[in-house]
Each structure stands twice: as structure tokens, then as C-alpha cells.
Amino acid sequence: MSEVNQDEIKYNYVIYKIEFEIPVEELDEEDIDENDTIGDVKKFVYIGSSRRFEERVLQHLSACRNEHKQPLYKFINKYDLQFDKDSFEIIETHENITEKEARKIEERNRKEYVNILGGICVLNEIRAIRTIEERKEAERLYEIKRAQTIERIAYRIAYGLSEEGKTTIKAYNKYYEQTEKCKKYRKEYRKEYQKRPWTCPICKKTLQMGSKKNHLKNIHKQN
Q1: Of the residues 2, 64, 77, 170, which has the maximum number of CB atoms within 10 A of its CB?
Q2: Comparing C-alpha atoms, which of 91, 135, 128, 87 is closest to residue 110?
């Protein structure tokens, strides 16, 4: 029996969009371009594809509530936009196509919105599909960034182990401990720590951590 190529398996797909309309005067400067005019309404669109649409909708809603960092969710949370099941609109349905074919259709729709006159902003973080050349270039840039990150980490580790680094870190920690920010953090941490549950190993009673010392001393006569 020949092995099934996962890339050739076909499913039924839907192409959907999420669209928001916001008056230009309510937008932050970073979301306004030279074509926008005060008094106008600017559209923001996200294009997606899925073979399990209802499940994908729930994933989007959950990710937004948990404040994931993708542009779509950051945008929704920044402007406190209404985002629920009614925010999704199916714009195309396709039967018996591969995932790659669905990605191509999604990308076609994304490009159509990018090219619409009037400056509709597309909120997709990445393109649905890229050419071989674009993929190679993205991989090349990723490897450069990865190498730079490794180099920075290696330098920080080496510096931290050096005598100069140890002295600098010690001096900084001493300075930071005296700052209001550090004092406030410690106060809040201690307050939160006192509320944590603690179970007595002797009587198995569950109390707050702040009651631990008095409980052991007064109930079990331990110092």
C-alpha cells in the first residue's frame, strides 16, 4: 500500500474575513496613513481559511481574550472592539481542495483587499502563501537574526561570568533594591504570598501562608 501524501489530502474549506470600521479621528497615529481624512471611517480586515470554521472561530476568540500578541488580537484589544461570533463572515466556500490550494485562495483575497483604493488595512501578520524565493529569503533573514541572538546571549553569559560583569551586576542589584519600583514589587509580592494556600503536614488543615507560623506555634506547639 502506497503511503498517503498529507499535502495531497483534500477537504472542504471556507474563506472568511473579520472586518472592523473605525472613525479616523479615533485612531492612534500609527494606524493612520496619508490617505486618511478626519471624518472618514477606515476599514480593517483580517482574511483566514479553515476546514473547521466553528472551531477556528473559538480559537480566535480564546486567543483574543488571552491577549496573544498577533497584530489582529493586539488591534482588537487596543481599541476595545466588540469581537464575537458575529464578527466573522464567510466570503467563499470550496469543496475538495488541498490546504495549499486553500492558502492560495486566502492569499488572493488578502491581495484584493490590499489593492483596494481607499487604504483598507489588512491585519494578517503573515501572507498565506509565499514563492520559493520569498521563502528562502525569509529563512535567510531568520538565520541571520537567530545567529545575532545567539551571539548576544553568549556575550551576556561571558560578561556575567567575568569579574567586571559580576561587579557591575552586584552594583546594579544593590541600586535596584533601593528603588521605589523594587520596594513596591516586594510589598505586593509579600502581600500576595501571604494569601497563598498552605496545608499543615500535621493536621492536614488548609490555611493561608500568612497563618503558618502562628498555627504551628499555637496549635502544634512548634517554635
Answers
A1: 64
A2: 128
- Averaged over successive runs of 10 residues, the pLDDT of the chain (223 residues) comes to 70 94 88 75 89 94 87 90 94 93 90 63 63 69 82 84 85 84 84 87 87 84 69
Contact call for residues 46 and 123 (beta carbons, < 8 A)? yes
CA torsion, points 185, 189, 190, 194, in degrees to nearest 10? Answer: 160
Total-model pTM: 0.56
> Do 222 and 215 form a contact (C-beta atoms < 8 A)?
no
Beta bridge partners of 88: 18
SS3 of the chain: helix, strand, coil, percent, to 5? 55, 20, 30
